[in-house]
Design goal:
This protein is an alpha+beta fold. It folds into 3 domains: about 1-85 and about 310-480, Beta-lactamase; about 90-155 and about 255-305, D-tyrosyl-trna(Tyr) Deacylase, Chain: A (3-Layer(bba) Sandwich), CATH 3.50.80; about 175-250, no CATH class. It is about 30% helix and about 25% strand. The strands form 6 sheets. It has a 5-stranded antiparallel beta sheet with strand order 2-1-20-19-18, with helices on both faces. Helix 1 packs parallel to helix 12, helix 3 crosses helix 9 and helix 7 packs across helix 8. The longest helix is centred in the N-terminal third of the chain and has 15 residues, at about 70-85. Pfam families: Peptidase_S13 (PF02113). Keywords: Carboxypeptidase, Hydrolase, Protease, Signal. InterPro entries: Beta-lactam/transpept-like, Peptidase_S13. Belongs to the peptidase S13 family.
């Protein structure tokens, strides 16, 4: 009740916002300078549809945009779709002859939506296993997960991006390249805990180092996948009698894991696998590092090919929930629209071409990945608002706006802005890194005017509370005053 009263209090203050621009800016600065978040570096730009400035703080300083990067990637995809076909190919399965035995190859083509879950209804790995079994094949050698459609980049291009952030990029993606381990305490204090994969993968080894703690102890279980190995290590402690813990983590090699799962599905359908599941990658080569048009390779025919979901569906997921893997795959597929090899460097070239058409100066932005996880990405508030104005003039703008989170309603804004000033009236992309937050998009002000805005909080001191309440309070002041 106390928290609800506080929330009501600040939006009532917002409704009584000052009339003059100078008073408004003073109130905004006061909100952003609260002692608890002192030291945070703020940037803000708000304009109306005609480009008149409503509020502006450090508009030309460069900020980490975090997942605001996805604004540029998803709009570049919409722009490419308007200019011609955009690659949206489904994964497939084929039979390959190997010195007298038949191998099964699972071919990844950059589809981010393939699933391998009991409730899967479309774009399902199980459908490919069904096709192999229905073909009459009863005995196979190796099961190969082939992601060579995209040159193998183990991590996003930044040496400061590490596992645990959904950055395992592969042309053969399965279940968003995540695994889940179900962990339970043992039967007595000091006894080993119990753990199993939610989806069976017999070729994966679980190294279970979880112990059972006292009934009143805190659950502190962690999981990691050892790079280059099919080993999952669990460690920590779970309280005796405590609840089962779901531990989600990134798959180290998605193509290898997809091969493991397909082999298991084939066995369940009566197909004998005499060989081993394995991955097949295409290492980065000179032609991939220096983007240039490449001739398409001649491909063998699939035994069966999945139909991926519509691109708009994937783009909506990418923006609404801020899906890092999907965003970076879109960046790589942008390269294909100009005949380049689908790599990060080539995708960045196409992305920067779109940004240049929007008229942004090169010094106002830098992007090194598609998701916004790179700490080297930069944008100025003025440039972001200018870009959003350009987007609004494009024929695909209305469709793109539907993919944005809505304040207090859905996506990454679903739990924020639960007040009459902002709820249902903000359509914007969030961004979050360790010490950076961002929000950019559009909002409907109290008068019904539409405002375009970008607000950034960088360099938040360690130990400081979240800056999101201050960010939302500042936006409410602006909305109420206009």
């Amino acid at each position: 009740m106390r928290r609800q009263t506080a929330l009501i209090g600040w939006w009532l203050l917002a409704l009584a916002a000052p009339a003059s621009a100078a008073d408004l800016e003073a109130q905004i600065r006061a909100v952003l300078a609260k002692p608890a978040i002192e030291g945070t570096r703020w940037g803000l730009r708000v304009e109306d549809k005609e480009g008149h400035v409503i509020a502006s703080i450090a508009p030309d300083e460069r900020f980490q945009p975090a997942s605001n990067t996805k604004v540029f990637v998803t709009t570049a995809v919409f722009d490419a779709m308007a200019r011609g076909p955009f690659p949206n190919m489904g994964n497939g399965v084929r039979i390959e002859n190997d010195h007298g035995r038949q191998n099964i190859a699972l071919i990844g083509r950059g589809d981010a939506m393939m699933k391998d879950t009991p409730d899967c209804e479309k774009d399902c790995l199980a459908a490919l296993a069904d096709a192999v079994a229905a073909s009459g094949v009863r005995r196979v050698g190796d099961v190969i997960g082939d992601d060579s459609f995209m040159p193998f980049e183990r991590w996003i291009i930044s040496d400061r991006i590490r596992p645990g952030t959904r950055t395992q990029i592969s042309a053969l993606t399965i279940n968003d390249n995540e695994l889940t381990v179900l962990a339970n305490p043992g039967d007595a204090v000091g006894a080993p805990g119990r753990a199993a994969l939610e989806i069976a993968a017999p070729d994966m080894e679980i190294i279970n180092q979880i112990t059972t703690g006292a009934p009143d102890s805190r659950p502190e279980a962690m999981v990691e996948m050892i790079p280059g190995m099919r080993q999952i290590r669990l460690f920590g402690s779970l309280p005796l009698g405590g609840k089962q813990q779901r531990l989600d983590f990134d798959i180290d090699d998605p193509a290898d894991y997809a091969a493991i799962r397909l082999a298991q599905l084939l066995r369940e359908r009566g197909v004998k696998v005499t060989g081993h599941p394995r991955a097949r990658h295409a290492p980065m080569g000179p032609v991939d590092l220096i983007p240039a048009p490449v001739a398409p390779a001649i491909q063998a025919k699939d035994l069966s090919t999945l139909t991926p979901p519509d691109l708009i569906e994937d783009l909506t997921i990418t923006s609404k929930v801020s899906q890092n893997l999907h965003a970076h795959l879109f960046l790589k597929k942008l390269a294909l629209t100009q005949g380049f090899s689908p790599t990060t460097p080539a995708g960045r070239i196409v992305l920067n071409q779109t940004i240049a058409r929007a008229g942004l100066p090169a010094a106002a932005h830098d992007f090194y990945d598609g998701s916004g996880l790179s700490p080297d990405n930069r944008i100025t508030p003025r440039a972001m608002v200018s870009y959003l104005h350009w987007v609004e003039a494009q024929p695909w703008a209305a469709d793109w706006r539907k993919t944005l989170p809505i304040g207090g309603v859905d996506g990454t804004l679903g739990r924020r802005m639960k007040n009459p000033v902002l709820q249902g009236k903000v359509f914007a992309k969030t961004g979050t890194l360790l010490a950076a937050n961002a929000l950019a998009g559009y909002m409907i002000a109290a008068s019904g005017r539409e405002l375009t805005f970008a607000i950034y909080a960088n360099d938040r001191p360690s130990g400081a509370p979240s800056v999101l309440p201050a960010m939302d309070e500042a936006l409410a002041l602006i909305a109420a005053a206009n």
